[in-house]
Amino acid sequence: MTNTRKEEGGLTRDRLVQAALGLIQEEGLEGLSMRALADRLEVKAASLYWHVRDRRELVELLAEAILETVPAVSGRSGWRGAVLDASSALSRRVSAQKDAGRILLEVPEELERSDTFAELKRQLQTAGLRDSEAREVALTVMVQVITAGRPAEGPVLEAGAAASIAVDSGSRGVVLRAGSEMETLIRVAAERGAAAPAIVRGETVVVRRLRGVGLGEIELNPRHPWRFKIQGATWNTVLDVGAIDVRDIKLDSGAAKVECYLPRPRGVVPIDISSGVVGVTLHRPPGVAVIAEIHSGAVRLKLDDYSSKAVVSDVRWESEGAARAADRYELRINSGVVQLTLDNKATAQPQPHVELRPAPAGKSASALEILLDGVESRVGTRRP
User: What are the structural domains, with CATH classification, of the chain?
Assistant: First the structure.
């Protein structure tokens, strides 16, 4: 008992946190466990729980310690320069600690409690953003900086392997379409105003475009099959994917005004539309088979010659010959979907787009720069 009390008496939260950061620096986040930490501190594992409830609280303390040591900087003038300076300071701190990005993203609520977040928010409000906008953009900046320094997780995507793309919450005016003569997984516009910020992690692409005017386009490598996810609180998303092998499409609750130009399916391709999705138009090529499972509570539907103002009981709808078709779309329309149209006019309305070319070497814009361009565009529309 005496030895245990002696061990506990010499242990503090600060010592525990510093030991944990040192352990992660040597062995990575996977090497962090209460037993390994106790061995490093030369105490009994049970004594750690006098200072932290569980692993999550420990990770929260680690995140807090990392963020507290991001230096305050003041170099470049103007709100944009200040944002870039703060972002650079955060990037350097994240780079200095092994797996810092993973720690911070495991407890993202700690980001909004940091001085860096407060400074970014203040500068973005100075630029002209409203409080809620400044909060969202400040958090986006921090996440972009943190993830930009992280290595891709998992193996590099092999040629022909399926890729995934998610249009993240808050995005507006994102257009996804097939590219040509591409070596990379995606390609964005060389012209910043036509681009949509995207982060690639292995086989997954995440797009988040700040609300603003116009469209932000991304070309997808057509040599890969693609899975699509449009998340909630998005607006005016276009999937111009007639030249892509589409494996599945999922629209989450809160997605609004989604237009899809579909290819001929290969095998059975599911399209899942969640409750709360509003304003979906699906264009398919003539003769493509579709089976739709429609749940009661869906409103204002038109599928070829079938229409309903309000579905009062579950319905199964099939286009002609769909049950026998090996290649078809299987559409799931959940209760609460509002205004959905399915037609066979995929080739009748080509989607206009900005010509995309790879940016010249050494002149490509970072996702952060594109994001700040969006801020300038946003506040510029409010000036008299």
Answer: 2-52 (1.10.10.60), 78-148 (no CATH), 163-343 (no CATH)
